[in-house]
From TrEMBL:
Superkingdom of the source species: Bacteria
Keyword Cell wall biogenesis/degradation: no
Record-listed S-adenosyl-L-methionine binding positions: N77, T79, R83, E117, D143, N201, L202, R218, N219
Database matches in SMART domains: MeTrc (SM00138)
The keyword Transmembrane helix is annotated on this UniProt entry: no
GO biological process: methylation
Function: Methylation of the membrane-bound methyl-accepting chemotaxis proteins (MCP) to form gamma-glutamyl methyl ester residues in MCP.
Annotated organism of origin: Candidatus Lambdaproteobacteria bacterium RIFOXYD2_FULL_50_16
Name the UniProt record assigns to this protein: Chemotaxis protein methyltransferase
Length: 273
């Protein structure tokens, strides 16, 4: 049924617009085959016989859940524990000393994927906040993908995944799986209690009342064009407390964008007013 299935250039352009308008991801012309490979399984799952039929299906308001499944399929979710470690060094030396004295601390991982970044933040908070029990600390993790949010909330990781976590921290914050969970590690409840999850589309107005001490939005904007990046950065900046920090990916930069945030060092910016 699917052997001769092709995505025409015209249909690809319709998908480009649909995806860009809904989630801001820019599938350039050279990524057509990537889109084909990621959508093919969804066609098989729904039993639809063409990409045109699938596009009509996901844009029907009655099929909102399949639209979410499509976004899950096309999203890139590469992440690791302690990825880009200089960011966590910066937090330890320049951010946490002040935050550890505050009564209330709010942290946001804006594209938290399957949770490695979130739990890394939680570990570093627990390691650097000596008065933790007397503070109101919440770490929010959001992602557009319900699939990876579910994985993050479960908090189960393979032995290979937890490799970057120092041994002492691994034993302190994770339970080693046994039986059918052998070769896996489970996040302990004391760490999980700091973390809150919700689905959020970065392209839509943020339904968040909190202002944050710092925000991680790393390795997301590489998929966006300049106007989309500029708009997103402005809205992220509006969610920061004065003096708050925005961390982006090492492969990203705000250079050339109109922003009120001030450069601190590569991939780290600050709201100074």
């Amino acid at each position: 049924m699917f052997e001769g299935l092709n995505l025409s250039d015209e249909e690809f352009q319709l998908y480009q617009k649909l995806i860009y308008d809904s989630v801001g991801i820019n599938f350039t012309d050279n990524k057509k085959q990537l889109l084909v490979s990621r959508l093919r399984k969804r066609l098989e799952m729904t039993g639809l016989s063409s990409y045109a039929a699938y596009r009509r299906y996901v844009t029907d308001p009655n099929n909102a859940e399949e639209f979410v499944q499509m976004i899950n399929a096309i999203s890139t979710n590469k992440t690791d524990f302690f990825r880009e470690p200089q960011h966590f060094d910066f937090l330890k030396h320049y951010v946490y000393p002040d935050l550890s004295k505050k009564k209330q601390v709010r942290i946001w991982s804006a594209a938290s994927s399957s949770g490695e970044e979130l739990y890394t933040l939680g570990i570093t908070v627990m390691e650097n906040f000596p008065n933790l029990v007397n503070q109101d600390i919440k770490i929010l993790g959001t992602d557009i993908s319900t699939k990876v949010l579910g994985e993050a909330e479960q908090g189960v990781y393979s032995e290979e995944s937890v490799g970057p976590i120092p041994g002492l921290m691994l034993r302190k914050y994770f339970l080693k799986g046994q039986g059918r969970w052998e070769g896996h590690y489970l996040v302990k409840d004391e760490l999980k209690k700091l973390i809150h999850f919700r689905r959020l589309n970065l392209m839509q107005p943020f339904p968040l009342s909190a202002a944050f001490d710092f925000i991680f939005c790393r390795n997301v904007m590489i998929y966006f064009d300049k106007p989309t990046r500029e708009d997103l950065v402005a809205r992220l900046a509006a969610q920061l407390l004065p003096g708050g920090y925005l961390f982006i990916g090492n492969a990203e930069s705000l250079s050339g964008l109109k922003t009120t945030l001030k450069y601190v060092q590569p991939a780290i910016y600050r709201k100074v007013y």
